[in-house]
Amino acid sequence: MLKPWYVAALLGSSAVMHAQAQQQPATPPSVVVAGQRHASPWFRAESQHLVVYSNTSNSQVADLLNQLEKLDYMLRLYTQPFLKSSDDEPRLTFYYHDGAVALNPLGVRQPANAIGLYNSCSAGVQGYGVRLAPGDEEGLSALYEAYTRHFLYRYTDIRAPISFIDGMAHYFASVRFTDTEMVVGRTPANLGRYLDFLGNGHRYSLEYKDVLEQNDSRGQNYASTAGIKLEFAARSWLLTHYMLSTDENRKHLVDYLSAVYRDVPITEAFEQAYGPKVSELSTTLWRYRLQKQAVLTVHIPTLPAAVMNFDTLPESSGEFVLTEAALKSCPDRKTGESLLRRTAEAAARYPANAYVQRVLSRAQVDWGNPQDAMPYLTSAAGKPDAGAEVFYLLGEAQLRLSRTDAARASLSRALTLDPKSAEAASALYQAGMKAGTAPDEATLQAAIAAWKNAHEVNTLARQAALAYAYAGETPKARNALKLMAHNIREPELAVWAKTWLDKLAAGVDQAEVVAEMRLQPASGTASREWTIANSMVMQDVEYNAGLQDARSFLSQQSLNPSSPDKAVQATFDTR
Predict the structure, then answer these.
(1) Taking the mean position of all CA atoms in its chain, how far away is CA 171?
(2) What is the pLDDT of residue 435?
(3) CATH code of the domain containing 255
(4) Which domain covers residue 49, as residue numbers?
(5) What local confidence, expressed as pLDDT, does residue 548 receive?
(6) Are 425 and 415 in contact (CB under 8 A)?
(7) Cβ atoms within 10 Å, residue 32
(8) Sheet strands (E) in 58-121
(9) Do both 287 and 333 map to the same domain?
(10) Where is this region: Disordered (predicted)?
C-alpha cells in the first residue's frame, strides 16, 4: 500500500539550508476575469484545485489561490507514501468572507473565536474562511491549517491519530512561499507562545500520552476546553515537527502510521517506530525544541502558479451565495425549514434568474414539497444548455416523489454531464436501492463513485463499504470501514463501522447487507471542524493564569501577613 518516501530526497538535498526565506516579488498569477453589469459584491473564482466564492477583492483571492496551489503541490510531495489521489478529483468549494458574521447563515453553533469551518456531508465538502486584516499572518496561517486538514482527509486514508492530522495542519500553517522557495518548520506564533508559557512553570493540561491517545478536550485548563485544544495543537505540532525532522524520522513515520492503520495501539506503535518511551517524550521534545528544531528553506523551482478564472455575479444572485452554501451543508430540519422560508420569500423578486431559481429548487426539494420545484426543473432540464445540477435536482425531486425510474434517468444524465458529482452519484445509489430489487451493478458503482469523489465523507464511505461487501470485495469493504472506525470526529459512524468490521470478519450474507443498504443515516449528518483564532485563546490563557497567580499571592499574604517572605510560594509546574 505504501509508496517510496520521495520527500526525504527533497529535504535531504543540498538545496536545504538553515535560513530565513528571502522575500521576492511574486510571479503575477494567470487570471481571466469575466465582467457583469450591476454586479454583486460576491464573485466566483476557480483554480486547479479550488472554487472560491468571495466578497473581498479579486486581488486578495488571486493571492490566496496562488498560495494554496503551492501548498497543495507541497502536500502531495510530503504525503507520497499515503496518497490516494489521481489529481483529478472535484475542486474544493471555498467561501472566503469579509467577516465572521458571514458564517451565521449556516445555522450551526459557532465556538468562540471561530474564523473558519470545514464542513463535509453527503451534499459535498465546503470550506469557509474569514479574511482578517490585510497582511494578517494568523489569517493566512488559519487558511493553510484548514486546507491541510482537508487535504489529508480527501487524498489519504489517514484518519488517526488526530495528533498527526492536527500536527501536520499546524506544521504547514506556518509554511511560507516565494516563487521558487518554501520556508518550512517555522514555529506558529501562538503555539510557540503556549509552549513558552508552559516552559515558564505554568500548569499543563496534557501529557504526551494524552496527545497520542487523541485526548484533545478532556482535562483542566486556564481557558477551559479551548485552552486544552490549544495545548493539544501545540504539543501535536512539536511532535510532528520532530517526526519530520530527519530522513530517518520520516522513514519511521511511514512505519508509525502504517501500524496505527493496522490497529496497533497508538502509543505502542509510536514506541515501536521511534524508540523513545512515551513517558520520556516530554523531555525528548523539550530538548529537541531547544537544541535541534530547525527552520528550513527549500529551493523548489517547480512551484506552480495558480491558473485562475474570475466571474462576477449579478446583483440579484449575490445574496443567495451563502444561502446555497447553507443548504449544501446538510443542516438540521429546523434550520433547513427556516432556509426554505427565507429563500422562497427572497427568490420571488427574481423569477427570471436561473441561479436563484436553482437555489430555491434545492430548498424546496430538501425541506419542502418537491412537487413545488417540478415546474421550474422540468422546464430547465428541457433546455439545450441544462447543466448537471438541474438534472441532479430534478432526479432528487423525482426520487422523493417515488418516481424511481424517472429519477434514475435524470440522475444518470447528471453524472454524464458531471462525473465528479458526489451528490448525484449518491442519489443514484439511493434511487437504485428504492427500486425494490437487488442492487444492480449501476447502483453499486454509483455508491463507489460517490465516495471516490468525496473521500472524506463518512456517510458516503458507509455506502461504498456496503456496496463492496455486497459485491464480495471484502478488502475494499474493510478499508472503507476502517477509515470510518478510525475517525473519532464522527463517533456514531465509528461505532457502526466497528460493528460491521466484526460482521465482515465473521462472515455476513448478502441479505443482511442489502437490509443495511436500505437504511440511511439521519438527515443533517455532517462532520464539522472549526478553525479558531488561537491568538484570542492564548490571551484568555494568559489572562486567567494571571488572575490565578494574583489570587494565590493574596491568599498567601492573608495566611502570613506579617512576614510575606515566609509565605508558602505558589507553584504551577504540575498538571
Answers:
(1) 15
(2) 85
(3) 1.10.390
(4) 39-299
(5) 86
(6) yes
(7) 11
(8) 92-97, 114-121
(9) no
(10) 556-575
- Looking at the structure, tell me whether residues 384 and 436 fall in a common domain: yes
415 CB-near residues (< 8 Å, 6+ apart): 388, 421, 424, 425, 428, 446, 449
Q: Is the domain of 206 the same as that of 235?
A: yes
The predicted model gives 117-146 an average pLDDT of 84
> What does the block give as the cell for 395?
432526479
- Which pLDDT band holds residue 534 (cuts at 50, 70, 90)? very high
Mark whether 383 and 483 lie in a shared domain.
yes
d(CA 477, CA 472): 9
Q: What are phi and psi of 273, to 5 degrees?
A: -80, -40
Residue type, 519: L
Whether residues 270 and 386 share a domain: the answer is no
> Is the Cβ–Cβ distance between 343 and 323 less than 8 Å?
yes
Last residue of a domain, one of 249, 265, 299: 299
Cα separation of 174 and 241, whole Å? Answer: 12
| pLDDT level of residue 523 (50, 70, 90 thresholds) | low
Residue 99 lies in a domain: yes
Contact 463, 447 (CB under 8 A): yes
Q: Which of 81, 76, 82, 84 is nearest to 4 (CA)?
A: 81
- How far is 470 from 446, CA to CA, in rounded Å? 14
- Residue with more model confidence, 377 or 108: 377
DSSP character at residue 187: P
| Stronger pLDDT, 436 or 418, i.e. the higher one | 418
This prediction has a pTM of: 0.87
Nearest-angstrom CA–CA distance, 330 and 440? 28
* Lowest model confidence (mean pLDDT) among 66-75, 119-128, 486-495, 501-510: 119-128
* Shared-domain flag, residues 386 and 497: yes
C-alpha to C-alpha distance for 512 and 25, rounded to whole angstroms: 62
How far is it, in rounded angstroms, from Cα 232 to Cα 222? 14
Q: Which of 514, 529, 544 is the last residue of a domain?
A: 529
Contact 560, 150 (CB under 8 A): no
Query: Within a domain: residue 488?
Result: yes
92-97 and 114-121 strand pairing: unpaired
192, 238 in Cβ contact below 8 A? no
User: Cα separation of 92 and 102, whole Å?
Assistant: 19
Hey, which residues does 120 pair with through a beta bridge? 125, 527
